[in-house]
Design goal:
The chain is 2% helix and 34% strand. It is built from one helix and 15 strands; from the N terminus they run βαββββββββββββββ. Strands 9-8-3-2-12-13 form a six-stranded mixed beta sheet, with no helix packed on it. A four-stranded antiparallel beta sheet has the order 6-5-10-11, with no helix packed on it. Strands 1-15-14 form a three-stranded antiparallel beta sheet, with no helix packed on it. β12 and β13 form a beta hairpin.
Amino acid sequence: MRKFIYFIALLIVFLLPVTTRAQGLVINEMMSANATTIADEDGDFSDWIELYNGTNDTINLAGYTLSDKLGQPAKWTFTDYLLAPNSYLIVFASGKDRQGLPYFHTNFSIKDEGEDVLLSNPQGEIISHYNPVPLTDDNSYGCRTDGNTSNMVFFLGATPGNTNNHQPLISSQGFVINEMMSANATTITDEDGDYSDWIELYNGT
């Protein structure tokens, strides 16, 4: 097995998935090619986004927004809903535009080849953001451990509405992007002594 680390310039933000650290409420996991994982109330297997409240307080989601367009962050807005501490909420990105239980539905869907997915607070600030990532059927992308947006991975399978902490990774198979960092302040320097963004490749064969 061999590992390779490549240093690249700030262009990485346009090429690889990144997230913005949220304060307690984050996009924890997402799936854009839901073939058999979880059905909505109509029996359809739509794209979905999982939110996680990692705080000790209940968060009222009224005024929070989800979008697949950076230029239109308030594309779909939550009505009044209380998300309990340390709990999850599945929102189907189905285009059906529905509020309330059993499931919320956005007015947009996510292309399986990848689109931006972002969560904004009622003040219009983006608090969690995934750049486009391609996904295969029934595999997801999200926080390696719940709420930890500094460690994003591709999951083999998915855990909608449940913890990500023990889910196997796609990186256990083949030659893959294993890890990345887009805000390298003190972690590792390149040959010039600079703290550049980096990508780690892993040969799992």
